[in-house]
Amino acid sequence: MSVFITEKSTPYYWYSFQIQRRRFFGSTRCTSRKEAERVEALKRDKAKALVNAEQRSRTSLAMDDITARLWTDQAPYDADPDATMANLGRLVDYFGKTTSLTEIDHAKAKEMVAWRRGQRLKGKKDAARIANATVNRSTTKVLQRLFAFAKAEGATFENQPKWGELLLPEPVERVRELQDEESDALDASMRGDYAPFFAFVRASGMRLKECVGLRWTEVNFGTKQIVKTGKGGRRIVFPISDTIREIIFPLQGKHPEFVFTYTAIYGNKRLGIVRGERYPITYNGTKSVWRTIRINAGVTDFRFHDFRHDFGTKVLRETGNLKLAQKALNHADIKSTLRYAHVLDSDVAEAVELVARSRRRNAGKSTGKIQEAG
Fold first, then answer.
1. Are strands 22-27 and 219-220 parallel, antiparallel or unpaired?
2. Does 25 reside within a domain?
3. In this structure, are residues 4 and 14 in contact, taking their beta carbons and an 8 Å threshold?
4. Is residue 309 part of a domain?
5. HSE on the CB side for 312, CA within 13 Å?
């Protein structure tokens, strides 16, 4: 019997049944047995649909299901979960929620690339088409990740896309180094409340988001380490050098949670901001301040991320050690560090010259021996 009266002081019939070892139990909110049985039948149908949907979502390769599983299992640990969600949503919208991953062959993936490549930047009049790197990162590699995720779950594909042919060519990322006169100009144009932040960026080589969100709980002066979660959820450690300590140690007490703060120039009642008070710096606020500083300093063709390039270049030039530079930049793959290898060109040239001189000396000795023998 599925409906019954409980021993509790209630006038309602209750239902209780199991579907594939999962129990469903609750009040029908009915005092008539016939009405209660009708409610129980509806509850049973809904329960069956729920169980079937859950089973389907655990094994289904439909775009809506596979993206949901990837989001739950991996995306929360990405460096930028919001971007992952947007990229997955774009694929679902393009292919359709019910389209199976097995239906996406090389031809369909190629059409997707062409579609994405034809889009233009948002919010800009007469905007240019999005860059090849953006197409690769936001579309092709996301679809490739979905296939890899499905394979890890045990799925097999007979006609999966040829990823090497789908990836669009990207220009080699330039490595921009800050010159001495540019550095002096930036210092002269620096906002006082932002000075510690930019000094820290240049001394640590950390990424903008890592610096903006730096919390005191991540700073340990005792172990001389800053421990954060980086790209892909990796635990990354930055050393607190004497220079970095001199920058951040005096900032203690300015804010209970965040290391870097700014002084509000203008008040905003809606946001609860009081002029003259200090608040944690934000990502967008820092980008805006950086643009103003750069313009006032007359420094051109230097992005915020170039501070990291400048740091990596100088570390490698001073040490000549590629593995050490990799560790300083917290690169998971040394291939990322190789972009800075050009600073070793002079060392390579010197080594080549030493080899040539050695050969000439050896050649001269050999010639002398031949003459003596003659």
1. unpaired
2. yes
3. yes
4. yes
5. 26
CA distance 224 to 244: 10
Number of domains the chain is built from: 3
Find residue 228's DSSP bridge partners.
Answer: 236
- What domain range is 41 assigned to? 3-59
Kindly state whether residues 80 and 196 are assigned to the same domain.
no
Per-residue pLDDT of 338-364, as tens digits, reads 777 776 665 555 656 666 777 777 666
Instruction: Choose the final residue of a domain: 166, 201, 217.
Output: 166
pLDDT tens for residues 17-57? 888 877 888 888 888 989 989 999 998 988 887 677 656 65
Residue 370 within a domain: no
Q: CATH number of the domain that 318 lies in?
A: 1.10.443.10
From 143, 166, 189, the end of a domain falls on: 166
CA dist., res. 265 & res. 269, Å (int): 13
Query: How many Å apart are CA 124 and CA 204, to the nearest integer?
Result: 34
The set of residues, in sequence order, having a beta carbon less than 8 Å from that of 116 and lying 6+ positions away, is: 90, 130, 135, 138, 139
Q: 337 near 312, Cβ under 8 Å?
A: yes
pLDDT at 66: 93
Distance between the two ends of the chain, CA-based, in angstroms? 116
- Token pair 């009266």: residue: 5
Cβ density class 192-223: b for 16+ within 10 Å, e for less = ebbebbbbbbbbbbbbbebbbbbeeeebeeee
Residue 101: exposed, middle, or buried by beta-carbon count in 10 A (0-12, 13-18, 19+)?
A: buried
Residues 47 and 84 in one domain: no
Take residue 252 and report the two structure tokens written for it. Answer: 């203690």
What is the per-residue DSSP string for 328-363? HHT-SSHHHHGGGGGGGHHHHHHHHHHHHHHHHHHH
Residues 145 and 98 in one domain: yes
Which of 207, 177, 175, 183 is CA-nearest to residue 329? 207
Could you say which DSSP state residue 42 is in?
H
Alpha carbon of 82 to those of 67, 78, 79, 88, 143: distances in Å? 14, 9, 9, 10, 17
Q: Which residue has the tokens 């804010």?
A: 255
